[in-house]
Structure formats: structure tokens, C-alpha cells
Design goal:
Blueprint: E1 7-8, H1 13-22, H2 24-35, E2 38-44, E3 47-52, H3 55-64, E4 69-70, H4 73-83, H5 92-102, H6 108-111, H7 115-129, E5 134-136, H8 137-153, H9 161-181, H10 183-187, H11 195-221, H12 228-234, H13 246-259, H14 262-277, H15 279-293, H16 307-319, E6 326-330, E7 334-336, E8 339-341, E9 346-349, H17 351-354, H18 398-415, E10 416-420, E11 429-431, E12 435-437, E13 442-447
Parallel strand pairs: 1-2, 3-9
Antiparallel strand pairs: 2-3, 4-6, 5-13, 6-9, 7-8, 10-13, 11-12
Bound molecules: protoporphyrin IX containing FE.
Protoporphyrin IX containing FE is lined by residues 87-88, 99, 149, 255-256, 259-260, 263-264, 267, 322-323, 326, 387-389, 393, 395-397, 400-401.
Length: 448
């Protein structure tokens, strides 16, 4: 097997940590340029942190040697008080069982049951836009994907329940995002009543009774209501006959919610920004949706006939992968491709940097959806393009997200002309838990 070398960063630690806060993406690009594919960024007695910039090493960690790595303990700690033991952060046999149980909820046949609601929500948005000439597009996409995922999770919309759960889940997500930006808040135990821990608890106190009541109602009704909740409750382990407990169903619902809306909202926002910046690409997309849809809202059956729509989304996901980093920790002290990794090492794989490598992507910083035509993706090295991760822990919602994003983008472009509102600050990606924005993004919209 190939052996590799981890090169240690020789930057002043204070300057590096200030830069990590002010310009983490710039710093990462510089580290790749100056140090290569595997970089030892922090080297303290009890803390080693590595950054991975190459598809080959990413493949070893995420696929070939995936069993030797786990999700990092710090991330688990931040999430467990609110999200319990959902599949995003669990590991080992427990994760394997849960992943197997949750998978059928995302089978292709099942996804089609979510489409009617998605279309309804998209239609609501486009109708509301009729009276507007400018929108904060990031907020619009966030609100749309939030309501879409909440609806897919539980169809029952009892007197504004979707809104109440959505709002509390959103507050929870924002609190977790704020927590991740503060070292102190990240490491303090969950029981310490810090303002952030209290915000998280308040949101959970709103969400829990509603979710448990919905779970109880679904159990009592006993039928499949065509939502993710029903799917998660129905599944049964083939070997043991076991089903998920109420608490586990609740943990998985919370996990799907947090993993399943901001990411899609960001990708859609970036796709719309790049289309506004590239009138040729917008014209090609418009020509495609006009000829295929001829004025009606898209359905799932239309998607195979909308290849350029998919290419635009893939290119937006390449340039701005919402999950810009993927973290792991070794499951024990290990020898990994000739490098001794202690159990406490944190390894950060950077799709954002890997996706912009000129070895595989010509004009890597340019928005060029056509590059995804034909067999392009198939002939890329493994892990050179992985907006949804890869290996056993590949995003369980990738089919859901692609379906949703194609429907939304095709519908918007068909009905509206979008352009960037002049005079706003430069729009740059900002790295947090996801790849977001520093300021809200204003777009001028004109009905066609
Ligand atoms: C553009 C949209 C999305 C992007 C870019 C995205 C990205 C990712 C990535 C990179 C991972 C792997 C993380 C890792 O290996 O550590 C992941 C995992 C996951 N995603 Fe997504 N995701 C998206 C949408 C969704 C949706 C819509 C859902 C659910 C409704 C979802 C649910 C999950 C779950 C549950 C996992 C954990 C899977 C496991 O560990 O077994 N995601 N996602």
C-alpha cells in the first residue's frame, strides 16, 4: 500500500489561529499549496489535528479503511443532548443497525411519495413572490427547504404544527451553529447552564412533546401516512425482528431535520447566485425548462429530461459543497498508511479544496455546469467529487436532496428572472458547520 507523509505546519500558532477564524478557506488552500496532501495542523501533546486534501487519502479513510475511523467525540458531545443517538453521529454496530433500518425511508420508490408536498410548497413560494421585486434569497431557500423537510418527516399539519416545530428546530440549529464557533461553548459539558445550552434546551422542550405525541398518534393509527416518520416506525430488522424505540425514532427525526434542510438551501442559493452571474448558463437552463415543462411545475418524472438542471446543481455543489469538511477520528491508536495516528487525532477531509483541484477540474474556480455532461463524473478519480460524502456513511438523503433541488431550481427559473441586486457587499463563502454567507444575499426577481 502507498505510504504517505504528514507535513507539519510551520506557521506561528497565534497567527494561524487568527487566520483560521478570519479566513479558514484561504488558510486551507494555502496549506495545501505549501504542504501537500496531508498536513499536521495542530501538534499538541493531547491534540493532533490533520487536514486531508487528496482524494486518495480521503478514499482510504471514508471507504477502504472506514471501519478504523469514527465520528469525532467533540461533535458527538455537542449534538447528543439535543439529537440523542441519531445516525449522523453514532458509530459501530449501533450505527450499522440504524442505517439499515432507516435506509428504506429513502428508497427511490419512497421518495416519490414526498414529491406532491414538495411541489405544493414550491408553488406557495412562487405565488408569494408575485407581489415582491426583491428577496433575501438565502432566507427564502432556507424557509422553503425547512418546510419541505418538516413536511416529509411528518405529514400531519395540525394547526400550524409544522411552523412551530420548524421554528424550534431552526432555533436549535442556530444555537448549535453558534456553539461550534466558540471553543469554550464546544467543550463545556451539556449540563452547564450557559446561554447556548439553555437555548438548546428550550428548543428541545418545545420539540419533544410534539414529536412524542406524533409518534404515539402514528403508532395508534398503525397505517402508513406516507411520511418519513411512518417509514422509520414500520421498519423491522430482518434478522431480529426489532423495531426502533420511540426515543430512537425521535432521535432520527431530529437528525434528518438538522442534516436535511440547510445543506439543500445553501446549494440552491449558490446555484441561483452563479446563474445570476452567468447569463449564458441561465439561458441554457431556461431553454431546457421551457421546452420540457412548457409552463407547468416539474414532477419527478420530468427529471430525466432536465439534465442541464442537474448539471447546474452538481456544479454548485462542486464549487460550494455545503458540507465543506468531513471529520473523523481513529477508532484507536493506528498506523495509517505509514503515519502513526493517535486515537485523539482529529482528521478533517476538505471537499471544498479537493473539488477545486486543477488536476481534475479544468478552470477549477469557474462555474461551468457543462463539465458535468456525459461520463465526466464517472471518469473522475474516486473521492475527487463528493458533495454527499462517500463510502458506508454517504449521505442517506442524497436522492431526496437532488430531487428537491432539481424541482425547486427548475420551477424558479421557469417562472422568474433572477439577478443580483446591485450595491450589496461582495458575496463570499463563509465556513461554519456548513458553507454559508456573511450577509444575507439580495436578489431582484421579475416574473416572466
Ligand atoms: C445538498 C444537500 C445535502 C448535502 C450536501 C449533504 C451532505 C452530507 C454529507 C457530506 C454527509 C456525510 C458526512 C460524513 O461522512 O461525516 C451526509 C450525511 C448525512 N446526511 Fe446529508 N446532505 C444533504 C442533504 C440531506 C438530506 C435532505 C437529508 C435527510 C432528509 C440528509 C441526511 C443525512 C444523514 C442522516 C447523514 C448521516 C448518514 C450516516 O452517517 O449514515 N442529508 N450528508
Amino acid at each position: 500500500m502507498t505510504t504517505i507523509e504528514a507535513r507539519k505546519v510551520k506557521l506561528n500558532p497565534f497567527a494561524a489561529s487568527a487566520r483560521m477564524r478570519s479566513d479558514p478557506l484561504g488558510l486551507m488552500a494555502q496549506l495545501k499549496r505549501e504542504y501537500g496532501d496531508l498536513v499536521l495542523v495542530v501538534d499538541l501533546p493531547n491534540l493532533k489535528s490533520y487536514a486531508v486534501f487528496s482524494p486518495e487519502i480521503a478514499y482510504e479513510i471514508l471507504v477502504h479503511q472506514a471501519d478504523r475511523f469514527e465520528k469525532p467525540a467533540l461533535g458527538k458531545k455537542m449534538m447528543e443532548s439535543s439529537f440523542g443517538n441519531g445516525i449522523f453521529f453514532s458509530d459501530g454496530d449501533f450505527w450499522r443497525r440504524q442505517r439499515k433500518l432507516a435506509q428504506p425511508a429513502f428508497y427511490h420508490t419512497r421518495l416519490s411519495t414526498y414529491v406532491a408536498d414538495m411541489r405544493q410548497r414550491i408553488d406557495d413560494l412562487l405565488t408569494r413572490w408575485q407581489s415582491l421585486s426583491e428577496v433575501e434569497i438565502d432566507k427564502e431557500m432556507h424557509a422553503l427547504t425547512l418546510v419541505i423537510v418538516v413536511n416529509a418527516l411528518f405529514k400531519t399539519d395540525v394547526s400550524g404544527l409544522t411552523e412551530r416545530v420548524g421554528k424550534a428546530m431552526n432555533e436549535l440549529g442556530t444555537a448549535v451553529g453558534d456553539q461550534s464557533k466558540s471553543i469554550l461553548d464546544s467543550i463545556l459539558p451539556n449540563w452547564v447552564p450557559t446561554p447556548i445550552n439553555r437555548r438548546k434546551q428550550r428548543a428541545v422542550d418545545v420539540i419533544n412533546p410534539i414529536l412524542y405525541k406524533m409518534i404515539a398518534d402514528h403508532r395508534a393509527a398503525g397505517d402508513d401516512q406516507g411520511d418519513l416518520l411512518s417509514a422509520l416506525m414500520q421498519v423491522q430488522d430482518e434478522e431480529t425482528g426489532e423495531r426502533m424505540s420511540d426515543q430512537q425514532v425521535r432521535d432520527e427525526l431530529m437528525t434528518m431535520f438538522i442534516a436535511g434542510h440547510e445543506t439543500s438551501a445553501l446549494a440552491l442559493t449558490w446555484a441561483l447566485i452563479e446563474l445570476a452571474r452567468h447569463p449564458d448558463a441561465e439561458a441554457s437552463l431556461r431553454a431546457e425548462v421551457d421546452s420540457v415543462l412548457a409552463g407547468r411545475l416539474p414532477t419527478a418524472d420530468d427529471l430525466p429530461n432536465l439534465p442541464y438542471t442537474a448539471m447546474v446543481i452538481k456544479e454548485a455543489l462542486r464549487l460550494y459543497p455545503p458540507a465543506s469538511f468531513i471529520s473523523r477520528q481513529p477508532a484507536g491508536n493506528i498506523d495509517f498508511m505509514g503515519v502513526k495516528l493517535p486515537k485523539l487525532a482529529v482528521i478533517t477531509i476538505m471537499p471544498y479544496i479537493i473539488h477545486r483541484d486543477p488536476r481534475w477540474f479544468e478552470h477549477p474556480d469557474e462555474f461551468m455546469p457543462e463539465r458535468f455532461a456525459g461520463e465526466f463524473e464517472k471518469q473522475l478519480p474516486k473521492c475527487a467529487y463528493m458533495p454527499f460524502g462517500t463510502g458506508p456513511r454517504i449521505c442517506i438523503g442524497n436522492g431526496f436532496a437532488m430531487l428537491e433541488m432539481q424541482l425547486v431550481l427548475a420551477a424558479i427559473i421557469q417562472r422568474y428572472q433572477v439577478s443580483m441586486t446591485p450595491g450589496q457587499p461582495e458575496i463570499k463563502p463563509v465556513l461554519g458547520l456548513t458553507l454559508g454567507f456573511e450577509h444575507s444575499v439580495k436578489m431582484t426577481i421579475k416574473k416572466r
